[in-house]
Amino acid sequence: MSATPYSFTVTAQQVNLRADKLLSELLPEVSRSYLKQLFDANEVLVFGKPVKASRQLKEGEVISLTLPEPVSMEAHPEDIPLDILYEDEDVLVVNKPKGMVVHPAAGHYEGTLVNAVLHHCGENLSGINGVLRPGIVHRIDKDTTGSVLVCKNDAAHQSLAAQLKAHTIDRVYHAIVCGIVKEEKGCVNAPIGRSAKDRKKMAVMNARDVAKGRGKEAVTHYAVLKRFYHDNLTSITCKLETGRTHQIRVHMAHIGHPLLGDGVYGGRQKLSRVSQGDGY
Q1: Is 0.70 surpassed by the pTM of this model?
Q2: 32-40 helix and 19-26 helix, angle to the nearest 10 degrees
Q3: Residue 277's beta-bridge partner residues?
Q4: Is position 143 annotated as part of the catalytic site?
Q5: CB under 8 Å to 86, separation ≥6 — which residues?
Q6: How far is CA 244 from CA 64, 139, 204, 219, 274, in A?
Q7: Model confidence over 184-236: pLDDT tens digits?
Q8: CA dihedral of 214, 217, 218, 219, whole degrees rounded to 10
Q9: What is the pLDDT of residues 62-75, one digit of tens each?
Q10: How far is 178 from 232, CA to CA, in rounded Å?
Q11: Which one of 141, 143, 209, 278 is the catalytic residue?
Q12: Could you tell me if 190 and 254 are in contact, meaning their C-beta atoms sit under 8 angstroms apart?
């Protein structure tokens, strides 16, 4: 398949729309982040001249761009060391390190957990999630360290997926959050969806958003392990009922306790000192 050119003439109804907004509406299959890359690379033109994403359009102007030929994506084995916590003929439990992406995606085609697992397991992986996510039942964030379940056959994948859906598998995470959490334990029950202000972020949705299909149920139970008063920090555990993108990060920020070091959701507080005797 060759590169595909597109050209649109601005109508009276589209006057004063931003160039990126118009293309987002006319090309819904193209992500906003990819459109931004095209604008940044001067690939979006009006009457043959590059324009910025914020350019307000006028009636009769012709906006054009060419989408490059799609890249054929398929995960390939890579000899990357794995921290294996458990393995048998059906499943593999791997401790994913911080900084590693779980499966290939735009901008991360190599060095992922899937690449490493393909090298370790060969063809002995379930194919339910396709060639980019073989064996992967669930995901955790790139900057999160934690256990990931990998299935070696479809039967194991279907069984574990059903257990995750029925909440019969407990997923518990440890985190340090900014501020002193006063209550010993609590629950955040707030739907999560893509942020309207920043498409790279998630956010808690209100009832109106949910009614429009912009949010999904998200429930996080948390409990205090220790409070560090000198550093104004709290160590907690989080148990998930659901598995939304950035769920713990969004929920804890929502109640005023973002994760330490999470600049995306407000956890920019710097760690000065945590002593063994500080807190309870």
Answers
A1: no
A2: 130
A3: none
A4: no
A5: 92, 93
A6: 36, 10, 11, 9, 31
A7: 999 999 999 988 888 778 999 998 888 877 889 999 999 999 999 999 999 99
A8: 160
A9: 999 988 765 555 77
A10: 6
A11: 141
A12: yes
